[in-house]
Amino acid sequence: MSLIITKEKQKELEYLLYFIAEGIINKKDNPNIGLLSGAMGETLFLYEYSQINKNYEKYVTKKIDYIFESIENGNVFHTYCNGLPGICLAIDYIQSKSHFDYKRFDFVDNQIDEWLIEQFNICINEGNYDFLHGAIGIGYYFLEKFKSGHLESKKTLNVLLKFINNSAINENDFVKWKTHNKVVNISLSHGMTSIVLFLLDLYKLDVKFDYNIEQIIKGAINFILAQEIDWKMYGSYYPFTSIEQQKDKIHGSRLSWCYGDLGIAIMLSKASKIFNKTIWEEKSKEIFEYSTTRKSISETTIVDAGICHGSSGVALIFYNEFLKTNNAHYAVAAQFWLNKTLTFYKEDSENFSKVCYNTITGNYEPNPSILDGTSGVGLALISFINNKLDWSKFLTI
After folding, report:
1. Which of 135, 148, 263, 248 is nearest to 197 (CA)?
2. Closest C-alpha among 66, 68, 88 to residue 78
């Protein structure tokens, strides 16, 4: 039972979840089989939904069979968002929860790992560390394999750590990186915050690597903290990419999972616990507290319901923080953005078209994915019902 919503509100969520699930099982198979962008994300939603509605268990198996068949037919891609790293991690997650005698990653053959390492090396040679589309995303796959006992994955992790260390720009106590597009980006989805989150997971292993992970983390956090802008003037604590990239005109950042304050606050909270840094925890709380006051479109730029930059992603983040801290302000913010998500649905209940707004075309577009579509909204709604956010690790929340 939810900790912050009424039984009546839960019925609303359950009806919307049924609507989302039916939409997924009755549409054509998605040729994009990625975790955050395609069929694997739909499968993850159906799995989590089947835990509260057993009638949908059979569709999980069908979807996984389709994904395996698609891969065998050559539909392979290398990124965490669209390809094999995310797919393998999600299947392992589902199988681990479904079968007590499951041997982790037993379904992955050596060819997959060898191909992923080839693609991983290409990303590194191109200087592409991007979480969703580059080396960090592939690194998460090998990190999880290493944690599960595949010790040979440490070699790949060392290569990634070498790349992170050698490509870092060190300036006094600051560490920063430029993307393969030659910009300094501090975001969670594509920038430095994702590097720090990955390094934190690596550091927690308490395994000796060839480079000083703690030093890199602290230098990167020092740089990110130094990017703070005047929230009274710009409406956010941190800019869209970095002050360095916006010297001529600083732009505040949206309220979202992908860019801006929330991802940095999540990272600071995690880092503060690992290193016992009270100052980081206080800054995280300060950012979260201010973020609870941002509600209008002009303050947030939220115009759709999706996870990436929409209402359900913000609702999920605040609910997660409430579950961890019991801070009532976060519960209120989570309720506000949950209600906003339901409003987006009610504005077009026949199609739920207001899940994904395309800023290029200026139109709302149908999207079943986790990152931008109904699967992500559905996963967030489920978390409000069962108070479980295990799946949200795929978003580094």
Report:
1. 263
2. 88
- What confidence tens digit (pLDDT) does each residue in 237-291 have? 999 999 988 777 899 999 999 999 999 999 999 999 999 999 999 999 999 999 9
387, 333, 390, 359: which is closest to 10 by C-alpha? 387
What is the rounded radius of gyration, in angstroms, for the C-alpha atoms of the chain? 20
pTM above 0.90? yes
Contacts of 115-118 with CB under 8 Å at 24 or more apart are 115/76, 115/78, 115/84, 116/78, 116/84, 116/85, 116/141, 116/142, 117/156
CA 233 to chain centre: 29
Look up residue 338 and give its amino acid.
L
- Residue carrying the six token digits 């995690």: 270
Rounded Cα distance, 342 and 355, in Å? 10
- Residue 327: other Cβ atoms inside 10 A: 17
Token pair, residue 76, equals 């392979």
Q: Give the three-state DSSP class for 134.
A: coil
CA distances from 200 to 181, 223, 258, 273, 274 (A): 25, 16, 19, 10, 8
Burial of 336 (0-12, 13-18, 19+ CB in 10 A): middle
Specify the amino acid at residue 38: G
Q: How far apart are the first and last CA of the chain?
A: 22
Q: Spell out where 210-343 has E strands.
A: none
Task: Classify 240 as helix, strand or coil.
Answer: coil
